[in-house]
Amino acid sequence: DKIFTFIRHNQMINQKIVLITSGGTTVPLESRTVRYIDNFSIGTRGSTSAEYFLGLGYAVVFLHRRGSLQPYNRNFQHKNFLELFTTNDADDGDVKIKSEFKGLLGMCFAKYHLHVENKTLLNVEFTTLSDYLYLLKVTSEFLNECMESAMLYLAAAVSDFYIPFVDMPQHKIQSSSGPLHLSLQIVPKFLKPLTSKILPRAFVVSFKLETDPSLLLQKCHKALDTYNHQVVIGNILENRKREVVVVTKDSE
Amino acid sequence: DKIFTFIRHNQMINQKIVLITSGGTTVPLESRTVRYIDNFSIGTRGSTSAEYFLGLGYAVVFLHRRGSLQPYNRNFQHKNFLELFTTNDADDGDVKIKSEFKGLLGMCFAKYHLHVENKTLLNVEFTTLSDYLYLLKVTSEFLNECMESAMLYLAAAVSDFYIPFVDMPQHKIQSSSGPLHLSLQIVPKFLKPLTSKILPRAFVVSFKLETDPSLLLQKCHKALDTYNHQVVIGNILENRKREVVVVTKDSE
Q: Which InterPro entries match (chains A, B) (predicted)?
């Protein structure tokens, strides 16, 4: 499929390649899904990082939550896109970029199309946790062919809890039956098989998000010990856009 | 504020006016919110209906979930908007609409800007259940001034369950502490005060979504009896885009 073709193309020309995951995964609460648990991530870090990696000459597989921020559209996604344009001078029913957005949007537009045409950027979408895990696994298997030129940059906010399919109510939960009690199971850790079996030679960067600063460092070190990969970047919800801690094997 | 100004303007010129709600509300699971419960609604019905109301000469307050479909952008929101355009012939860093989208997007663009400039369309955003309830209440209070020219069209998918603020954990729930048990309370019904006190003379249309066909009709009739409003439109998740049941006071 298109992921395989993209990776194979970049492998043939010896391009460094990074799989970036971004945005949050959902877990359904009902098997004919009306409701689900989500998290606040909109993909700021993943989409911004993707632009940096592209600037550094990497090919990027951008595995992101449907509708979350993507490289080069991230500055404009919060707006109704119809607001970015105005009627053009020819008045032929076509549009032009509003003057206040011209510089940034024109540049983003050009870079986006350049990277897509050069096959250095591939956007792939997920929504649910199971979509995400499936796509992460198959992409990692393809990437393993690239050996040391492959990087994994796991910025997605992956659900920690889910309701197993057998425990799910089939129909919409009725509010007339009183308060709702939910029991969620812990999602099996997928990073262990990824770093030890599927992609053992890649450079792997994972992220930890906490709200309690007293837990952060210890959780970063624990992740590095457990998964034996290269870098954990830890951040606290409130100041995550200004400050991170970077924990590497050498710093242990 | 802008909602008041918009409604007052349309009231002065005796414009019929409808408040359309659209998209899903979220309920946080943690007070420093990382996780929340959401529902699948992306606002197809609300945004499509808004275009019909605008076509019929109504002024529309479109109260929608941030990022969900809006009138005139709804056919394009699922795409990265950078994909809708190509470089223009002048090659001056500006863009033009790709030929395959030219007809529909050009028309939507023109209609959107016409309605915004004519003050017949106002987009207002919510995310959480409490944002939604607050905005619905204040907008309805303004609308009550319009007497019988006001309509309420409640297409949003509002959460049925929430976690009261006092019951919420402050910090991110830790997956190391084992399976997660959540207890959610039923959201108080807001339609009763709306139809009986806040907006007693407006024409009110509400919606019911179920997954079990055997419950639908009875739940529609029950809603009409309870809230004593004008119309309930019932639909089943699987075929909601092709078929609805319409229950009115006369049909009781």
A: CoaB-like_sf (IPR035929), DNA/pantothenate-metab_flavo_C (IPR007085)
Q: Does B99 touch chain A (CB under 8 A)?
A: no
Q: Which pLDDT score is estimated for B115?
A: 97
For residues A233-239, average pLDDT: 87
Q: What is the mean pLDDT of residues A87-111?
A: 90
Q: How far apart are CA B154 and CA B162, in angstroms?
A: 20
Q: Please answer yes or no on whether A97 and B97 come within 8 Å at the CB atom.
A: no
Virtual torsion, Cα B114, B116, B118, B119, nearest 10 deg: 160
- Confidence band (pLDDT; 50, 70, 90) for A122? very high
Q: What is the pTM of this model?
A: 0.90
Mean pLDDT for A16-30 is 94
pLDDT tier at A241 (50, 70, 90 boundaries)? Answer: confident
Mark yes or no for CB contact A94/B85 under 8 Å: no
Do B179 and A184 make contact, defined as CB atoms within 8 angstroms? yes
Q: Is the pLDDT of residue B252 over 70?
A: no
Residues 17-56 of chain A whose Cβ lies under 8 A from any Cβ of chain B: 26, 29-30, 32-40
Q: Among A198, A121, A27, which Cα is nearest to B38's?
A: A27
Q: In Å, how far are A67, B68, B75, B189 from B78, measured between CA atoms?
A: 7, 10, 7, 32
Architecture, CATH, for domain A1-79+96-201: 3-Layer(aba) Sandwich (3.40)
pLDDT for res A252: 53
Do residues A5 and B211 touch, judged by C-beta distance below 8 A?
Answer: no
Q: Say which residue, B48 or A166, is predicted with more confidence.
A: B48
Contact B80 A123 (CB under 8 A): yes
Distance CA B208, CA B226 (A): 14
User: What is the H or E stretch that residue A136 is in?
Assistant: helix A129-143
Interface test with A, best of B68, B77, B82, B212 (most A CBs within 10 A): B82
| Interface ipTM above 0.90 | no
Q: What is the mean pLDDT of chain B?
A: 90
Domain boundaries, chain B: 1-79+96-201
Residues 6+ away with beta carbon under 8 Å from B51: B71, B72, B74, B111
Nearest to A24 by CA among A68, A61, A62: A68
CB A61 within 8 A of CB A21: no
Per CB-CB distance under 8 Å, the chain A contacts of B72 are 82
